[in-house]
Amino acid sequence: MTDYIRLDKALSNMGAASRKEVKEAVKKGKILVNGIPAKSSDIKITAADELIINGILLKYKKYEYYMLNKPAGVISATTDSKEQTVTDLISGKRKDLFPVGRLDKDTVGLLIITNDGALAHDLLSPVKHVKKTYFVRVEGRIQTETENIFSAGIRIGSEQFQPAELVILKNDEVSEAEITIYEGKFHQIKRMFEAVGNRVIFLKRLSMGNLRLDDSLPEGDYRELSEEELQQLKYRQ
Ligand code: URA
Q1: If both were cysteines, with which of 63, 98, 147, 193 could 116 make a disulfide (CB 3.0 to 4.6 Å apart)?
Q2: Could you give the angle at the alpha carbon of 216 between the alpha carbons of 210 and 222, nearest 5°?
Q3: Ligand 1 within 6 A of CB of 107
Q4: pLDDT digits (tens, 9 = 90+) for 57-78
């Protein structure tokens, strides 16, 4: 099925021009659709159409997918009156982007940014148990029985957490581990470690589903997902 969208909506979604600017540009004959000047700003286009605006070639994309290496100090939201948000970090961004789930303000690492609501829903649905792996640094030694406590599914107060896999990497005054969880409760990893006596001092998400954070992506940077990465995210075994 071909998806049609209004020219002005497509361009404003993509962050290329406001609807008013599209109207003006159409009047001046500055928007070409497949080489022909658009007659009005509300004509319907598809992803197959070639758009030239003020001499610049654009391709309408229905969905966009980015991998962001979230830095600390930025909130997982689309807009905020005071704080910088993760979508503020995507330059020239289209207007309908949002983060897939949340990382705490001080958590860094993999965050998917997209406008594909169905994929986001699929990745976040609690019944899908999508795995998420984090690197964690905590205060104090991690007791070795913590691996069993987490893999059995820890209970904190009245809340039951699903089994999680813990691999201790370094055990000292400050310890390091990788932890894999299959749900996404509020402050989940911090609360799990707090419950066994370790305060989390650094948390980084390394992967979500089969998608791993690109090691070469500095904190604060982002890039589009490759077609292969997108397929890995969509079709998980
Ligand atoms: N668990 C946490 O405690 N914080 C995060 O940001 C993600 C998982």
Answers
A1: 63
A2: 75
A3: yes
A4: 988 888 999 999 999 999 999 9
